[in-house]
From TrEMBL:
The lineage of its organism: Eukaryota, Sar, Stramenopiles, Ochrophyta, PX clade. NCBIfam families: PRK05327.1, rpsD_bact. It comes from Fucus vesiculosus. One of its GO terms (molecular function) is structural constituent of ribosome. InterPro entries: Ribosomal_uS4, Ribosomal_uS4_bac-type, Ribosomal_uS4_CS, Ribosomal_uS4_N, S4_RNA-bd, S4_RNA-bd_sf. Part of the 30S ribosomal subunit. Contacts protein S5. The interaction surface between S4 and S5 is involved in control of translational fidelity. One of the primary rRNA binding proteins, it binds directly to 16S rRNA where it nucleates assembly of the body of the 30S subunit. With S5 and S12 plays an important role in translational accuracy. GO terms for biological process: ribosomal small subunit biogenesis; translation. This is Small ribosomal subunit protein uS4c. PANTHER family: 30S 40S RIBOSOMAL PROTEIN, SMALL RIBOSOMAL SUBUNIT PROTEIN US4M. It is found in: Plastid, Chloroplast. Belongs to the universal ribosomal protein uS4 family. Residues 3-86 form the Small ribosomal subunit protein uS4 N-terminal domain. The gene is rps4.
Length: 202
């Protein structure tokens, strides 16, 4: 399944707020509208899986690979899955406030603006690790877009702590202090329902 490139508002109307996909908010529904029928257990799990996929902008095959990797590691599979997604380079750029959405962050990475430990990395799915230093090419620094994004207030970013990240806005340099903790997850989702969804398929 390819990455979704259609109308984003359509997705958040169906699945709810997805801070990584778009800044747009859904208008409150009319109170007089008919109540939705109760969803089946399968649909509830499917929707949680879809939320995860659309928010982080990954394909079905990518998400399945992350689930398999989380299962191989020791610990809570659901949290390990979230940790893998949160430590993606495109998500880190988004969390630093350097892009309004994860797709925008992915574009910054794809265009070769990002350096990890002084080496160019243009792979959005790159897994950042503790002690990694994120910086930007000299050409990128002359482009004011990054500085504008970092100086703009982002209510979605400000709501959640990012103790695993350290960022110097003046030099546009970031450090990964640690792997993301549960309390630092900005995207609230029932990750175990996602694991259960894939367990039923295997």
């Amino acid at each position: 399944m390819v990455r979704y490139r259609g109308p984003r508002i359509k997705i958040i109307k169906k699945l709810g707020e997805l801070p990584g996909l778009t800044r747009k908010a859904i208008k409150k529904k009319n109170v007089n509208q008919k109540k939705e029928t109760k969803a089946s257990a399968y649909k509830i799990r499917l929707n949680e899986k879809q939320k995860l996929r659309y928010n982080y902008g990954i394909t079905e095959s990518q998400l399945l690979s992350y689930v398999k990797e989380a299962r191989r590691r020791k610990g809570l599979t659901g949290f390990l899955l979230m940790q893998l997604l949160e430590m993606r380079l495109d998500n880190i750029i988004f969390r630093l406030g350097l892009a309004p959405t994860i797709p925008a962050a992915r574009q910054i990475v794809n265009h070769g603006h990002v350096l990890i430990n002084n080496k160019k990395v243009n792979i959005p799915s790159f897994q950042c690790r503790p002690k990694d230093i994120i910086s930007f090419s000299s050409k990128s620094k002359t482009n004011n877009l990054l500085k504008i994004n970092s100086s703009e207030p982002n209510h979605l970013t400000d709501k959640v702590s990012t103790s695993h990240l350290e960022f110097d806005k003046q030099s546009l340099t970031a450090k990964i202090n640690n792997l993301v903790n549960r309390k630092d997850l900005r995207f609230k989702i029932n990750d175990m329902l996602v694991i259960e969804y894939y367990s039923r398929l295997s």
